[in-house]
Amino acid sequence: MRENFFVIFRNRIEPILSGSLAFATLTTASLIFTTSLSFKADAQAVTVNNTEVTNYAQSVLAMEPKRQQAFEEIKKQIGGKEIPKIVCNDPNSMSSLPNKAKDIAIEYCNHSQKIVEDHGLSIERFNQITLEIQNNNDLKKQVYNTLLRIQNAPKPKSGAPNTR
């Protein structure tokens, strides 16, 4: 049986405590991509290696612009009402949305799943890491620092010749 996929939106996350996109993104991942794993998973510590931390951070950063866009589009579709908690693999969580908003949510879910898998993680593993981040401050700090490192890395200049 497949574990629950991540949650799209609950509330919009405003980076009040920090202007850093890394902080906002990590907060978003902690609150937005929560899972409903079984209690036995809650009790077990999850070991996350450095590659997984990097893949997780890259996934979250890649998902964030589409999440913000989907959030705004759904908000327009429902007329500014509060957006319900939307769990990607729970069709009932989308039942109160108008059809166009459901389509936006489904498109976001499919896009996010592809992003996670393109970054070398299964949805189940992404959810395990998300849950562990909520319970493990050391891992949260490691992911936060990785997000900062990725965001602050020099971007390759487009059109520049590839020198090796």
Which features characterize this protein?
single chain, 164 residues, mainly alpha, disordered N terminus
If you had to describe this structure to a student in words, what would you say it looks like?
The chain has 6 helices and no strands. The radius of gyration is 17 Å and the shape is globular. The protein has 164 residues and is mostly helical. The chain is 57% helix and 0% strand. It has helices spanning 21-32, 39-43, 50-77, 99-118, 123-135, 137-152. The longest helix is centred in the middle third of the chain and has 28 residues, at 50-77. α1 (21-32) packs across α3 (50-77), α1 (21-32) crosses α6 (137-152) and α3 runs antiparallel to α4.
List the helices and strands and how they pair.
Blueprint: H1 21-32, H2 39-43, H3 50-77, H4 99-118, H5 123-135, H6 137-152
Rg from alpha-carbon coordinates: 17 Å
Oligomer: single chain
Task: Note the gap between the termini.
Answer: 46 Å
Residue fraction in strands: under 5%
Number of strands: 0
Main beta sheet = none
Short description:
The protein is mainly α and 164 residues long. It is built from six helices and no strands. 57% of the residues lie in helices and 0% in strands.
